[in-house]
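Action item from last meeting closed. Structure (155 res):
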Protein backbone atom coordinates (compact mmCIF):
# COMPACT_ATOMS: atom_id res chain seq x y z
CA UNK A 1 0.00 0.00 0.00
CA UNK A 2 1.43 3.34 -0.93
CA UNK A 3 0.96 6.77 0.55
CA UNK A 4 -1.02 8.03 -2.46
CA UNK A 5 -3.69 5.40 -1.79
CA UNK A 6 -4.17 6.76 1.70
CA UNK A 7 -3.96 10.41 0.66
CA UNK A 8 -6.91 9.85 -1.68
CA UNK A 9 -9.03 8.75 1.29
CA UNK A 10 -12.14 10.75 2.13
CA UNK A 11 -12.28 12.24 5.64
CA UNK A 12 -15.39 13.74 7.23
CA UNK A 13 -14.84 16.03 10.24
CA UNK A 14 -17.72 16.91 12.58
CA UNK A 15 -16.96 19.49 15.28
CA UNK A 16 -19.18 22.33 16.45
CA UNK A 17 -16.23 24.68 17.04
CA UNK A 18 -15.08 26.38 13.82
CA UNK A 19 -11.53 26.82 15.18
CA UNK A 20 -11.23 23.07 15.89
CA UNK A 21 -12.64 22.24 12.47
CA UNK A 22 -10.11 24.54 10.76
CA UNK A 23 -7.27 23.08 12.82
CA UNK A 24 -8.12 19.53 11.71
CA UNK A 25 -8.72 20.56 8.09
CA UNK A 26 -5.38 22.40 8.00
CA UNK A 27 -3.59 19.47 9.63
CA UNK A 28 -4.94 17.06 7.02
CA UNK A 29 -4.18 19.49 4.17
CA UNK A 30 -0.56 19.84 5.35
CA UNK A 31 -0.27 16.05 5.24
CA UNK A 32 -1.52 16.07 1.65
CA UNK A 33 -5.14 14.97 2.05
CA UNK A 34 -7.36 16.60 -0.55
CA UNK A 35 -10.73 14.91 0.05
CA UNK A 36 -11.74 16.45 3.37
CA UNK A 37 -15.19 17.73 4.23
CA UNK A 38 -16.02 19.38 7.54
CA UNK A 39 -19.13 20.63 9.26
CA UNK A 40 -19.96 22.40 12.49
CA UNK A 41 -23.56 21.18 12.28
CA UNK A 42 -23.99 17.65 13.64
CA UNK A 43 -27.49 17.55 12.10
CA UNK A 44 -25.82 17.45 8.66
CA UNK A 45 -23.61 14.50 9.60
CA UNK A 46 -25.80 11.73 8.20
CA UNK A 47 -26.49 13.53 4.93
CA UNK A 48 -22.78 14.24 4.50
CA UNK A 49 -21.99 10.63 5.38
CA UNK A 50 -24.36 9.39 2.68
CA UNK A 51 -23.25 11.89 0.03
CA UNK A 52 -19.50 11.90 0.72
CA UNK A 53 -19.02 8.21 1.64
CA UNK A 54 -16.05 8.90 3.94
CA UNK A 55 -13.28 6.43 4.72
CA UNK A 56 -12.82 8.03 8.14
CA UNK A 57 -14.98 10.19 10.38
CA UNK A 58 -13.36 12.50 12.92
CA UNK A 59 -16.03 13.31 15.49
CA UNK A 60 -16.32 15.64 18.47
CA UNK A 61 -18.48 14.37 21.33
CA UNK A 62 -19.49 17.54 23.12
CA UNK A 63 -21.74 19.42 20.71
CA UNK A 64 -25.01 21.25 21.34
CA UNK A 65 -28.37 19.71 20.45
CA UNK A 66 -27.05 16.57 18.70
CA UNK A 67 -23.92 15.35 20.50
CA UNK A 68 -21.30 12.95 19.21
CA UNK A 69 -22.89 9.99 20.99
CA UNK A 70 -26.14 10.58 19.11
CA UNK A 71 -24.20 10.82 15.84
CA UNK A 72 -22.48 7.51 16.62
CA UNK A 73 -25.84 5.89 17.34
CA UNK A 74 -27.29 7.21 14.07
CA UNK A 75 -24.27 6.02 12.09
CA UNK A 76 -24.55 2.60 13.69
CA UNK A 77 -28.24 2.32 12.77
CA UNK A 78 -27.75 3.62 9.25
CA UNK A 79 -24.47 1.98 8.35
CA UNK A 80 -23.84 -1.44 6.90
CA UNK A 81 -23.09 -3.81 9.78
CA UNK A 82 -20.58 -5.64 7.55
CA UNK A 83 -18.64 -2.49 6.66
CA UNK A 84 -15.57 -1.22 8.49
CA UNK A 85 -15.92 2.56 8.68
CA UNK A 86 -13.64 3.95 11.42
CA UNK A 87 -14.60 6.86 13.65
CA UNK A 88 -11.91 8.77 15.54
CA UNK A 89 -13.43 10.62 18.47
CA UNK A 90 -11.64 13.87 19.32
CA UNK A 91 -13.02 15.46 22.49
CA UNK A 92 -12.18 17.51 25.55
CA UNK A 93 -13.96 14.93 27.73
CA UNK A 94 -11.09 12.81 29.04
CA UNK A 95 -13.18 10.69 31.41
CA UNK A 96 -13.06 6.92 31.19
CA UNK A 97 -16.87 6.93 30.95
CA UNK A 98 -16.70 9.02 27.75
CA UNK A 99 -14.07 6.67 26.28
CA UNK A 100 -16.04 3.55 27.11
CA UNK A 101 -19.32 4.95 25.86
CA UNK A 102 -17.86 6.20 22.56
CA UNK A 103 -15.98 2.96 21.94
CA UNK A 104 -19.05 0.88 22.78
CA UNK A 105 -21.06 2.88 20.23
CA UNK A 106 -18.61 2.07 17.46
CA UNK A 107 -15.76 4.57 17.66
CA UNK A 108 -12.48 2.87 16.76
CA UNK A 109 -10.13 5.31 18.47
CA UNK A 110 -10.27 8.15 20.97
CA UNK A 111 -8.14 11.29 21.30
CA UNK A 112 -8.48 14.02 23.92
CA UNK A 113 -8.17 17.76 23.30
CA UNK A 114 -5.85 19.46 23.31
CA UNK A 115 -4.08 16.83 21.26
CA UNK A 116 -0.58 16.37 19.94
CA UNK A 117 -0.76 16.90 16.17
CA UNK A 118 1.80 14.18 15.43
CA UNK A 119 -0.14 11.65 17.53
CA UNK A 120 -3.40 12.71 15.87
CA UNK A 121 -1.94 12.18 12.40
CA UNK A 122 -0.44 8.82 13.37
CA UNK A 123 -3.87 7.68 14.56
CA UNK A 124 -5.50 8.97 11.37
CA UNK A 125 -2.92 7.23 9.17
CA UNK A 126 -3.41 3.97 11.11
CA UNK A 127 -7.20 4.06 10.82
CA UNK A 128 -7.05 4.90 7.12
CA UNK A 129 -4.56 2.11 6.49
CA UNK A 130 -6.88 -0.36 8.23
CA UNK A 131 -9.82 0.93 6.16
CA UNK A 132 -7.81 0.56 2.93
CA UNK A 133 -6.82 -3.00 3.86
CA UNK A 134 -10.46 -3.80 4.61
CA UNK A 135 -11.52 -2.44 1.21
CA UNK A 136 -8.80 -4.45 -0.48
CA UNK A 137 -9.97 -7.64 1.24
CA UNK A 138 -13.57 -6.93 0.24
CA UNK A 139 -12.48 -6.54 -3.37
CA UNK A 140 -10.69 -9.91 -3.25
CA UNK A 141 -13.57 -11.81 -1.66
CA UNK A 142 -16.80 -9.78 -2.00
CA UNK A 143 -19.07 -12.71 -1.20
CA UNK A 144 -17.09 -14.05 1.75
CA UNK A 145 -19.10 -14.48 4.96
CA UNK A 146 -18.53 -11.79 7.61
CA UNK A 147 -16.24 -12.42 10.54
CA UNK A 148 -18.20 -12.44 13.80
CA UNK A 149 -16.43 -10.56 16.57
CA UNK A 150 -17.04 -10.79 20.33
CA UNK A 151 -20.14 -9.04 21.69
CA UNK A 152 -22.08 -9.73 18.50
CA UNK A 153 -20.11 -7.26 16.41
CA UNK A 154 -19.32 -8.12 12.81
CA UNK A 155 -16.02 -7.38 11.13
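Sequence:
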Amino acid sequence: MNEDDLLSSRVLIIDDQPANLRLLEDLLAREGFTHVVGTTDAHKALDLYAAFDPDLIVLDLMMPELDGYAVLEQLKRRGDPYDYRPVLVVTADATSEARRRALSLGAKDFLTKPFDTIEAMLRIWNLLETRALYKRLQALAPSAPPIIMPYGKVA
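Note appended to the action item: The chain has one domain: 3-152.
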